[in-house]
Specification:
Blueprint lengths: L26 H19 L5 H8 L3 H29 L1 H18 L6 H18 L2 H9 L7 H44 L2 H6 L8 H17 L2 H30 L4 H26 L4 H21 L4 H12 L6 H12 L4 H30 L3 H18 L13
Length: about 425
């Protein structure tokens, strides 16, 4: 049986420890979590493909639709710590099931909306709330309670790879559905596909730890207070803010950039798919590396590579192969930042309240996502191009690389047989 040196959490200790699943029996719950994230993140990450069709049909304007999507970025992040806290106290099953239902309702109602306010409600609030309740913080937090410490990085990488596989599958699927059924038919089809994932939430149910119900409230508040007094935790937030800016800008406005370069819409769909495919490799590699290298160094090189790739893209001719190669390069670190970021949080504070504390970092991620989606819309409206957004993305990526270096992180302790 694999063992490792336990990391004492700096927050208040829980009333009882979660039982670890021996051997490799934790793989089924990990794969189920990855499958659920594949569906929820796959549908969410393909929403940028609907921006132009919605604008053409409703005439609401790129800025208005971008703002609704930006609200969605923020709400998705704001839901994470709340959903994580509920899951930490009562278990993840009901949280995940509720999230699926809300996501389906929001997606199904979107084609009926004809006003800016309505679009903000359904796309910016409902779909984002649903996807957020079924996302990284709840799933990684739940699985980490049942995985040996030496395997948590691997489990997080596998779960994260599920989101990337979803993007690889859903981006070209959504593009095909839009072309064949129109954007409304595509939206309803996506709602049906997401609904089919509901039974997975039942399989992911786990009972709350003994004694958690009466003690979680005060322990959780203490954990959150302690976390926000920690300089390393705040630096982690700063870097993850930039990650959100980068991803939201690209997932929302990459189709618009492709169109500005005079290339067909299919290039955008396949670029998003390639990002997802290459991030499967990146996520698994990150999960493997977290067990062997300090996470802050992994994050440094990931963010630095983004700055370099953006600058190379700006200097390159804008052909379809430029976009495909950019997608592959960026995809290697797209959401591969999740396992090392969750790993740092786990090292600093333990895994008892990981869903909540990692959810807080995801909120920072999505505040950055709000600005990435919204400012991209403003940039194209005011200047007719995304050039200044690309420059801002490169500068912020470099800053994110640097702020991770001072993070206080314990050395990796190798598991012994």
């Amino acid at each position: 049986m694999t063992t490792s040196t336990p990391e004492p959490p700096r927050a208040a200790a829980p009333a009882a420890a979660a039982p670890l699943i021996p051997g490799r029996a934790w793989w089924p719950i990990t794969l189920l979590a990855a499958a659920l994230l594949m569906v929820t993140m796959g549908s969410r990450q393909s929403m940028g493909l609907f921006l132009s069709p919605i604008n053409t049909d409703t005439g609401l304007g790129i800025v208005t639709i971008s703002f609704a999507m930006a609200i969605g970025q923020f709400v998705w992040g704001a839901v994470q710590p709340v959903a994580g806290a509920i899951a930490d106290r009562y278990g993840p099953g009901r949280v995940l099931a509720g999230g699926i239902v809300i996501l389906v309702i929001g997606t199904a109602l979107t084609p009926f909306v004809t006003s800016a306010f309505g679009l903000i409600v359904v796309m910016g609030v409902l779909t984002a709330m649903g996807a957020g309740a079924c996302s990284f913080s709840v799933l990684i937090g739940a699985v980490s309670q049942h995985v040996p410490a030496a395997s948590r990085g691997t489990a997080a990488g596998v779960i994260n790879a599920g989101s990337s596989l979803g993007q690889f599958v859903f981006a070209p699927l959504a593009q095909r559905l839009i072309s064949g059924l129109g954007w409304m038919g595509a939206m309803w089809s996506m709602a049906i596909i997401v609904l089919l994932a509901l039974p997975i939430t039942r399989l992911l149910r786990r009972q709350p730890m003994p004694g958690a119900a009466q003690n979680t409230g005060s322990g959780l508040r203490t954990a959150v207070r302690e976390a926000f007094r920690d300089r390393s935790y705040l630096l982690l937030h700063a870097g993850f803010f930039t990650c959100g800016f980068h991803i939201a800008f690209l997932v929302t406005h990459l189709p618009g950039e492709v169109s500005l370069c005079g290339l067909p819409a299919s290039v955008a769909g396949w670029s998003l798919a390639l990002i997802g495919l290459s991030n499967i490799v990146g996520s698994l590699a990150a999960g493997f590396a977290v067990n062997r290298v300090r996470s802050k160094y992994i994050l440094f090189w990931m963010y630095l590579s983004r700055a370099v790739l953006v600058l190379v893209y700006l200097a390159a001719p804008k052909t379809e192969w430029t976009f495909y190669l950019l997608a592959i390069g960026l995809g290697l670190t797209w959401l591969s930042t999740v396992p090392p970021t969750a790993g740092v949080v786990g090292k600093l504070f333990g895994v008892r309240y990981l869903a909540t504390l990692f959810g807080m970092t995801l909120l920072s991620h999505q505040i950055g996502g709000f600005f990435g989606a919204w400012l991209g819309g403003l940039a194209i409206d005011q200047t007719g191009s995304y050039l200044w957004m690309w420059y801002a993305d490169a500068v912020l990526a470099l800053a994110a690389a640097l702020v991770n270096l001072p993070i206080r992180e314990a050395k990796v302790v190798r598991a012994t047989a």
